[in-house]
Amino acid sequence: MLLTSSQVQSHSLMRAIPCCIFLSVLAGLTTFSSATVKAQGNLLITPRRVVFEGNKRSEELNLANTGKDTAKYNVSIVDYRMREDGSFLEISQPDTGQKFAGKYLRFFPRAVVLAPNEAQVVKIQVTKANELEPGEYRSHVYFRAVPDAKPLGEGEGKKDSSAISVRLVPIFGITIPVIIRVGENSTKLMLSDLSFDQVNDTTPRLKLVLNRTGNMSVYGDLVVEHISPQGKVTPAGSVKGIAVYTPNPLRRFQMDLDKTTGINYHTGKLQVVFSTQSDVRPVKLAETELLLQ
Asked: Where are the strands (E) in 27-166, listed by range?
């Protein structure tokens, strides 16, 4: 399954089966304005990612149905490869240097039925922790909506029996990355290959490469500020929740900058900072500048 990516990542999968085509929409590793809330369709989940490290062995995911109809979701584990452009490919065998977390995770319940405005907790636990070698293990918990099954022909009028019909049934779901970390974190990040593009007064766009080294993945926020020749600092853009997962050494990234604040992108410089997310104080992992002309 090939998943495409953009600044705000949404994942889609289409499967064709006799008489029907089911469209599944996933939302793993998605950028949202909230650091803890993730939503797709009528399902709301908090938190949007889980990291087990130190002595932490369990976590609760809070699910809420914000729709007007009762919904059922099956819960399972899927594994992805992150590509250089941030897109994802579902895989069954880990790449060199990649470790799956699935066999060390236990979650319950495995199916959830939520009435309108109803909430429920899904608990995730780490098992067989004594078998874990140093490093990072990653899998994704997949909440897949189960469509309301109706008998064939229900609600349908007379049709030409010689014609071929196709019925589209939207199926929504969300993937939550679950990471287990064992041992010391030696990961570092460097920003490189910065370039700026704005042709014919179109939307200003920044491109860069996030270079990861070490034994763990990187997750954080990217903030860009414009500094004029006179030293005036103006926020130019930000993106929350950017990941570079193991074993990838880099991720190519691009973002649109603000063009409503009167910034002159033909002079001055752009200051780019990547920091980890924190409720107390973000930790700066990398910083660089790009001279404009």
From this structure: 38-40, 43-46, 50-52, 58-65, 71-78, 80-82, 88-90, 105-108, 111-114, 119-126, 135-146
